[in-house]
Amino acid sequence: MPDLFENDRNYVLGDPELKTIGDRAKLAQWRHKMKGPAFYKLGRKVVYRGSDLNAWAEAQRIDPARQGQR
Q1: Which of 8, 37, 39, 43 has its CA 20 to 30 A from that of 56?
Q2: Whether pTM exceeds 0.90
Q3: SS3 for 12?
């Protein structure tokens, strides 16, 4: 699957592309619980790198054909 996000781009809260993985409240919950994609906290601004978002999305991938195989 091609990348969902541009690897060399930074995303900030309010960017519509972030809604692909969750709304603003969900992202805030994940940050508080230290879950979800990696992020930078720069003062009050939260920044996500596209490469981190793609890595996190790939880690969430489930392949039903491989379930039960070990």
Answers
A1: 43
A2: no
A3: strand
